Amino acid sequence: MEKKEAIRLYNFSDGTLVTKGLEIVAFMQRDAVQFDDYGITAAKVGALKDSINVFADTVTDIEALGDQMQSTALKDAKAETLRDAIRDAMARVVLTYDASSAKYRKFGTDTLSHQLDSDLLITAKRVVRVATELMPSLTPNGLTTAHLDTITTLSNEFSDLIVEQKVEIGDRDILQEDRVEAGNEIYNVMIKYSKLGQSIWQTSDVAKYNDYVIYNTISGDPEETPPTP
Prior knowledge:
The protein is mainly alpha-helical and 229 residues long.
């Protein structure tokens, strides 16, 4: 069965989840005697605090996105270097074969600047293959095996960077999913304990009752209601 996409259960930020969670922990430690009557021991409260601290220390999506953007920038830079190497070779090819000739068109570089990553890789390999085949005719105008070796090296490096980018994207997706699931788990425990805290103080202490109220709003605070006209 296909796993469902993890969806955050809380509307506020992860930072607010951490601060609200630690507040609840502090209130529960203050009210340890009352919670212990319900089987919520210091060990369970400590476990919640530990999970919150671990969550706070995990890699955020901002960091994962930064890694992804860096891998994309490296890939794109290598793509331009590869295009330049192909253009350098083709500048020599055109001295031998007119741009409208069948042999020149065989290189397939007319859309070079607009090609997608996968197409650019194929083009690079084709240029090396066709140039190797026609090398006796191209050598007089300065094309050498060194030019082709450069294209081959760059295309291999480019291929590796494409894979690295895909891995970064996949890693980010995994991190996002794991973080949402961990946050939801903390939130569910917080809600369970906060409801118990409200139940404990509902009829005896309004201030302590309010300590355990968690608002599932963007700010984590009560929504402001417009004044009555």
